[in-house]
From TrEMBL:
GO molecular function: pyridoxal phosphate binding; transaminase activity
Pfam family, one: DegT_DnrJ_EryC1
Active site per the UniProt annotation: 197
Family the entry assigns: Belongs to the DegT/DnrJ/EryC1 family.
Gene Ontology biological-process annotations: polysaccharide biosynthetic process
Record PTM N6-(pyridoxal phosphate)lysine, positions in chain: 197
Top-level lineage group: Bacteria
Name of the protein in its database record: DegT/DnrJ/EryC1/StrS aminotransferase family protein
Lineage per the UniProt record: Bacteria, Pseudomonadati, Pseudomonadota, Alphaproteobacteria, Acetobacterales
Keywords: Aminotransferase, Pyridoxal phosphate, Transferase
Species of the source: Siccirubricoccus deserti
Amino acid sequence: MTEPRPIAFFDMKAQQALIRAEIDAGIARILDHGRFIQGPEVDALEAKLAGFCGAGHAVGVSSGTDAIQIALMAEGIGPGDAVFLPAFTYTATAEVPLVLGATPVFVDVDPATFNLDLADLERRVALVLQEGRLRPRAVIGVDLYGLPADWPAIRALCDRHGMFALDDAAQAFGGALHGKRLGAWAHATACSFYPTKTLGCYGDGGAIITDDPARAELYRSLRTHGEGKSRYEVLRTGMNGRLDSIQAAILLAKLPLLEGELKSRTQAAAWYEAALGGRVTTPQGFAGAESAWGIYTILLPDAEARARVQAAMQAAGVPSAIYYPKPLHRQPAYAEAHARGIGAPPLNGPPPLPVSEALCERCLSLPMHPYLTEADVARVADAVLAKL
Ligand SMILES: *Cc1c(COP(=O)(O)O)cnc(C)c1O
């Protein structure tokens, strides 16, 4: 018997084989023209990204984390400001408000969508207002695993309280809501082009997408040390958040594949649903939301079942991952900020985050990429169900 073909958790090789010649030619052009940082490829990419998302402006930056940072810096967010964000997300979402001196206020997530729970968000905004120590300034909604958050509701809440709505779409580039792609639903959308994201380069890269021309201009200044019209006029405190030309050339080669890849991811999710639905908790989404299927995550009944299933998968040679094993408010880096966020007397500590805690015990992510075959998905599903 021959060994079955290995199943990758993310597969970047299959895609590279399709566009290798274009990538080589793009890199060779940059070696010739020599404009390695923010060269013409970056301008071309920005136009294409804005077009793809149906938004007014795209500003290429050095990573998804820097996209979040530049977007918050542009609002002047800092000490004394509360930034609301989910407790169940990647660390980068929470890191930036702290770096800027603001206070992250962790919000619980919805058990069905794994995205911000609007009722809990509303409650925590009210608590911050009631305490009066921090100003509610921004909400960072995350489109976790590729599924859009409920942006119309988040925007409405932000508008009511005069807050900035930032979409952390790092896992969701290409996702859509009510027929319109992520990019212009929030005041600004932070994208990551880390290699394993739905649109990834071969290094670090990111973009900020917005419909607001004034914000786009600020982002361009902030990513280049706060420069003004000329290079040596410094208008504000900025940072080095530039995108390099080689990463832009790689993204330009990959972007034409994305539409078809999103369809293939959706197909793989449908195969998973057919094989696993009813046996484990599978991702469900909600009406009007089109997931970009960046990560495919199921829920097992409890931590024990998850450990058992993960071991069975490993024995079968099928990769899996846990996104995320610990909610952010329990991470040493954030525990102290969490405690001072809301909860001065008479509250005696911030309200609990039970859904985020439970998801960390139960979640298990399966291989997901556009080059999975139906047979691959069947093998993964068999491995999941073997010791359930
Ligand atoms: C990947 C990711 C980021 C950070 O993106 P980088 O490009 O790695 O800086 C931010 N938020 C979420 C939810 C992510 O998954």
